[in-house]
Amino acid sequence: MEKKSLRGIRACVFDAYGTLFDVNSATAPCLRELGEKADALNRLWREKQLQYSWLRACQGKHADFWQVTGDALDFALRSLGIGNDELRRRLMQSYLALGAYPEVPETLAQLKRRGFTLAILSNGTPKMLQSAVENAKLNSLLDAVFSVEKAGVYKPDPRVNRLASDGLGIAPNQICFVSSNAWDAYAASAFGMFVIWCNRAGQQEENLPGKPDIALPSLEEMPDRVEP
């Protein structure tokens, strides 16, 4: 059976955290201190980080993603009974140096060679994203990095998706948006973009407006699924 491909694509726009950058690597520098609590901290930290972004958007009480990330970490540390200021500092700094998933550099390089415009669209602050991109040595592969800070609201607000289409000067239906977060993928589809859902965790489909066009377990196969 022939695999589905997306045609008429001019740009590939990627979510950052969980899609290009491994959020589970945030605790890697502190595994000795965290011990058996490392996995639980990773999980709760990420859950609260996303929850706080959604709730702030609903409340109209925007704070940048660095603050949200710190607030989420504080909640997770308290919940797990971890009280260590130096450990907190190191964990926050580690978020500026998240590792990229193994297939990411080659995937971006293949897409770049084929002439696609490549960009990031993320909740992260410009500083956070610049640091992650530089740490992963992806600078030369990306044409643009868009932060929600310009819109003053978090995903999945449509104003965030509009940052990419307006910023690149490309219609939504000529953009392939890629995210590992189901809610993010569905929102981009509802906005009018073609969408590849990088379903790393093997999640079930969501009951939300929009629907990803293609679901993949990683980004490795992506270059074979988009056509100019």
Task: Trace the largest sheet across and list its strands.
Answer: 3-2-1-4-5-6
Distance between the termini: 22 Å
Structural class, by secondary structure, is alpha/beta
**CATH fold description of the largest domain:** Rossmann fold
Number of helices: 8
Overall pLDDT level: 96
CA-atom Rg in angstroms: 17 Å
Helix content: 40-55%
Q: What's the total number of strands?
A: 6
CATH architecture of the largest domain: 3-Layer(aba) Sandwich
Shape: globular
Whole-number total of structural domains: 2
CATH superfamily of the largest domain: HAD superfamily/HAD-like
Major β-sheet profile: 6 strands, parallel
The first-level CATH class of the largest domain is given as Alpha Beta
Strand content: 5-15%
Provide tags for this entry.
228 residues, Rossmann fold, DNA polymerase, domain 1, 2 domains, 6-stranded parallel beta sheet, 6 strands, globular
Structural notes for this entry:
The protein is an alpha/beta fold and 228 residues long. It folds into two domains: 11-22 and 98-225, Rossmann fold, CATH 3.40.50; 23-96, Putative phosphatase, domain 2 (DNA polymerase, domain 1, Orthogonal Bundle). 40% of the residues lie in helices and 12% in strands. The chain has a six-stranded parallel β-sheet, with helices on both faces. Strand 2, helix 6 (126-135) and strand 3 (144-147) form a beta-alpha-beta unit. The chain is globular and about 50 Å long. The two termini are 22 Å apart.
